[in-house]
Amino acid sequence: MRRLSRRFATVGVDISPARLREIADGHPATDSEIVDVNFAFVVTATLSDDRRAKHVRARRRVVHWLTVAGAILVALNLLACLGFVLFLLAQHPQTY
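The structure corresponding to this sequence follows.
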């Protein structure tokens, strides 16, 4: 409950861990406390979803750029191999 109380405090709902435990155990709560707790749950879930979406976008961006870098390396390797083959063909004596 202490962690939950800290999370609630980050979104502007100050409620002690002991009071949260009492509410969870079924003790009566005022309407304002219920509204505050519901609000805090919704906001923390939304923030968590936003954080998760940001991480997914960052991971996609990294995979995209790693794919681009890999394609560039393959293209450069192909060009180097073609240049080497042309160099060898140019050095080879013609026998006709």
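Residues 7 and 44 are 7 Å apart (CA to CA).
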